[in-house]
Amino acid sequence: MPSRNLLLINGPNLNLLGTREPHIYGSTTLKDVETAAQQQASSLSISLATFQSNHEGAIIDRIQAAREEGVDAIIINPGGFTHTSVAIRDALLGVGIPYVELHVSNVHAREAWRRESYFTDKAVAMICGMGVYGYTAAIEFAARHMKTAAAKEKL
């Protein structure tokens, strides 16, 4: 089976998982999330790269590099950039890599402005409100999506 490559991107303030508003985001740290994600990806024969930045340009640079690296799918938790970044949206569309939008909290049950996303309409899936388990669900979905896409390419 050919190697499948997955990129997990976390946006601003997600480095504070585990300490930032634990009543909303829980007590699991980003390092814990990434460790579990690596183990899950490995069990699915997927190569997983992780990236976190509080800087919009760094996230854009990482997305653009993903195409050159042969990344097959992206999981992105854009954090606060969800509601503000046309530039990250354009980068995702520009590289043509399918992506899953992910949020730890249920953005639809929070402030009205959190319900607006620049990413959802072009995402292959959107996961929210599952806590950090959403990362597990996103990896499982991405694995299935990559497998289906690879099968279609063989036809």
Automatic annotation (TrEMBL):
The record's listing under InterPro entries reads:
DHquinase_II, DHquinase_II_CS, DHquinase_II_sf
Extract the GO molecular function terms from the UniProt entry: 3-dehydroquinate dehydratase activity
| Reaction it catalyzes | 3-dehydroquinate = 3-dehydroshikimate + H2O
Q: Name one Pfam family in it.
A: DHquinase_II
Supply the EC number(s): 4.2.1.10
Binding of substrate occurs at N77, H83, D90, V104, S105, R114
Instruction: State the UniProt keywords alphabetically.
Output: Lyase, Quinate metabolism
- Please give a single GO biological process term from the UniProt record: 3,4-dihydroxybenzoate biosynthetic process
Tell me the superkingdom of the source. Answer: Eukaryota
Task: Name the pathway.
Answer: Aromatic compound metabolism; 3,4-dihydroxybenzoate biosynthesis; 3,4-dihydroxybenzoate from 3-dehydroquinate: step 1/2
Active-site positions, per UniProt? Y25 (proton acceptor), H103 (proton donor)
Annotated site (Transition state stabilizer), which positions?
R20
> Keyword Electron transport: yes or no?
no
Assembly and partners?
A: Homododecamer. Adopts a ring-like structure, composed of an arrangement of two hexameric rings stacked on top of one another.
Q: What does this protein do?
A: Is involved in the catabolism of quinate. Allows the utilization of quinate as carbon source via the beta-ketoadipate pathway.
Which family does the record claim for this protein? Belongs to the type-II 3-dehydroquinase family.
This protein is called Catabolic 3-dehydroquinase
Source organism of this protein record? Apiospora kogelbergensis
